Amino acid sequence: MRVKTSFYLIIMLLITTSLFALPFQxxxxxxxxxxxxxxxxxxxxxxxxxxxxxxxxxxxxxxxAQTYPFFDPVYKIRxxxxxxxxxxxxxxxxxxxxxxxxRYRQYRIHYFDQANRKTTYMKWNYKEEKWKSEEKKLPFETxxxxxxxxxxxxxxxxxxxxxxxxxxxxxxxxxxxxxxxRREKVxxxxxNVNCLVLEPDxxxxxxxxxxxxxxxxxxxxxxxxxxxxxxxxxxGTFVVQLEAAQNVPYxxxx
Length: 254
Fold this sequence. Notes:
The chain is mostly beta strands. It has helices spanning 2-19, 72-75, 147-152; strands at residues 28-36, 39-53, 56-67, 78-86, 92-101, 104-113, 118-125, 130-137, 164-169, 172-188, 191-200, 213-219, 226-233, 236-246. Strands 8-7-6-5-4-3-2-1-14-13-12-11-10-9 form a 14-stranded antiparallel sheet. A hairpin with a 4-residue loop joins strand 7 and strand 8. Mean pLDDT is 87; it is low at 1-20 and 204-209.
């Protein structure tokens, strides 16, 4: 009887683990090339690592993007966006966004108190060289601009779906939608893979600043690894293509 009970507990643990398994591994790092036309203008990385925030286990999520020095006179990019995402609730404690895109610069931080539905919003004033801080109410449990994408990867998606994202960034809380447009086979470092094509709603203020249109190709499976992104900005269209990956469940084709 004890053997049967132990076997049953093992099976239940395996089922429970699979139900709450995340679509990425600790140490997942995705490296992308940024192309403007036929020119390879820069690189971008998406990283997810185990960490702690105020002694609580979190995922430290980080997106960095930069253009190469030769392309900087055309359109300089030096972006770093971070999130400290609670492993249990999958809600952020803190987000930080430092942007340098062309002549535009931004440095902003959100500290989230999800239980009491409020956030402390800090904005760096470059002219005065000091922080401006204010407390704001949250209308809902919220993601930040980075964690919202990782949270989206946990969902089951199919063409025709329009999942909602609840996001707080730049001092504003918005509800935005993502259109799942179609299935499409795409050539990637993993070979030809089946993908879903996603289009975030660009009308929501404070999301995807500077872009008029954004398309994202993610693998059509439980992992939803982004393999390609197209973004339209004022000077044209950037294409972001996955060129290296670490700690992913795919074999890279050489």
